[in-house]
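Submission sheet (multi-component)
Chains listed below:
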Amino acid sequence: MATPRDKLGRPIVVVTGMGVVTSLGTGRKDNWAKLTAGESGIRTVTRFPIDGLKTTMAGTVDFVTVEPSSSTGLTERLAEVVTEEALAQSGIGSKGDFPGPLFLAVAPVETEWPQRLEVGRAVGKHDIEIQDILKISGGGRFAPLHHRFMFGSVAGFLAEKFGTKGSPISLSTACASGATAIQLGVEAIRRGEADAALCVATDGSVNQEALVRFSLLSALSTQNDPPQAASKPFSKNRDGFVMAEGAGALVLESYESAVARGAPILGVLAGCGELTDSFHRTRSSPDGKPIIGCVRKTLADAGLAPEQIDYINAHGTATPENDKMEYLAISTVFGELARKIPVSSNKSMVGHTISAAGAVEAVFSLLTLEHQRIPPTINYEIPDPAIPFDVVPNKARDARVTAVMSNSFGFGGQNASLVLTREPI
Amino acid sequence: MTPRKEVWITGIGIISSLGEGLDAHWDALDAKRINIDDKRFAPYIVHPLAPVSFDAQIPKKGDQRQMEAWQRIGTYAAGLALDSAGVKGNREILGRMDMIVAAGGGERDVVVDMSILNGYLKDNSGPVFLNERLMNDLRPTLFLAQLSNLLAGNIAIVHGVSGTSRTFMGEEACGIDAARIALARIESGQSDIALIGAAQNGERPDLLILFEFGDFNLTGHYVPVWARGKENSGFAIGSAGVFLVMESKEHAQARGAKPFARLNKVVSNLAQRKQPGAVTKSLEALWPKLGVLTDNGNLITGATGVEAVTAEEKAFLRQHPGFAVRSTGTVFGHTMEAQFPLGLALAALSISRGALFPPNDPTGFEVEKSGAPTQIVVVGAGHWQGEGMALVEAIN
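Outcome: structure written.
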């Protein structure tokens, strides 16, 4: 029998396992139930005091805790939880022996304030200089902090625990990171380097400084009350995104390998594409050309025409800029269809899981294909007339869905899109 | 499967503690020059960046202001690499060029950090104090100057590299994997041309603290990597921006580009370093995958000088006694994410100049080697994890 190939003669890449954690809960089942019920996971932050902050809510994952507490520690734990779920569903390999590489989307790491203060206190006097800190930093007393705050630490942990093969790749393409991790896995399988790849994206970085940094860029919603209504993608009164935590994991396999071992085929990674915007550090090129090019490249990679896409899982951050530019891109590529194809934003409910978003939303796209039901865009009370999408307002909808496009656009001109289908095309 | 495409290195950009550009580096290596600063952060030693006029590659002051030093260093070196490859300003090629940057990040505003820290300690303040000070003291643009993927973002903005943009993170290993993935993409036809590289600013006390947590810093007197042992283990942080343009042979020939060398292979591994000898074993396992043709070749390593790791690497190197070894760590310091790209750059440069640069090692571990190298092995072992190797070859 000939090896199954896609339209472009490449190995077909399928998904055989998925795991997800968001502010809505742990696991596919819980998340899907709440997502299609239109529930919000956004709440007032209790992890640290909110006095003096402009934005006081986030989609924190408070039901998973780590000791000692750190954003990187939580990021690691979330990745571990979703990977376990994905591997259990896939049934691939054996415990501690995943037969392929790891691609991990993870937020940039640095020493965090609790640890910086811990080291500062250890100096034992006031008005300290950086040299005083240096003097007491060595000798092994703070050795765990070196490991914790190395960029490669989360991937190193996962690679050891799950026995992935080769050098794991940690990556950041800002808000597109999750999609990029999947793209790297797809490319490795298409090259024939691997029959399987573990693609994980994780973000547990709601801490004081991270919240302040995004706040200072005026990127966050300040509609704090009630927190559940803050994230308003595509609404006229949208005012920014809501920071959130979460993780998503996908086990990718060649179709051939999945069929050979009788694995569940949950969907097909039919296409992926990316195109860089060199206009500005945080803003899109006003003509939308890079995003338009990204969407077109992705359709071409999947070998699909716009009319074959039944649903768009939007980046939909609810920043005034993003949602406007996303409409421009979709309407340019899809023409009149842009008003008809359902386009919804999971971020209205789970918030923006930043480094994890691309993978979290890929999982939700696959669940949309599985359940033939489209999750809504909640908090949609005042439509923006400049964005005449069918946003699946406020209530989930049953629909025939055979192909989904999922978009991710990020700071630094990062644009990446995926096309997922139920069956090989 | 389609046959593997041949990949050439057609552009090299380097700035470091030794200077800027290929001739400056070749001359400095030949003169065995080393640039260290053992005063500014004493007892710690760093290799400071040589004076550079950033205007030459980053003409807009506004762009320079939006970057912290590591981003300026990287953006500058990327510009040099594009110039070297002859694609600078070629919008058609830049618009479809792949970019993989191996990045650290998080360059802190140490003045602000120390001021907040001292305020906190003085009044025994609670976390509310942190909110107030962060809201008031952090520069909004600092975040963008810290974000790992914004080195790639700045390269896109300043030089117009805007095909794909991926940022790999994870210390030394990400520099290896940036080259490995770019090579695999071009070999398989997924891409025609790529820019890869990394940057590090070594003059950063926040980095010194981070590595001091693990006792990785070299202190006291500077000694070359091979002269470091248990008593003086560690690295002097280096400053460097290193970028390479890689492309398929067909693509290079079609545009009449002159290659420095062929990049034949990049392999990497993540050994679990819990048992002694794990690094030696990991490097031994990588070696046969390279396709080395001779027993008396050339090898450039980024050995860090961290005793536990470098001793194991030395054990591996002793199994190949015919190889002339060169250590970048001795000359440039440890450039972390840039460690492996720097090794690749110097290998390609050596091949193009028809000579391996001279040894710089009083211990005698590095030996003289005459003749034009046809193959150079590049080795990188991370200070705490990650191992990799590459084979760079002359093009007949």
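Remark: The first strand of chain B starts at residue 7 and ends at 16.
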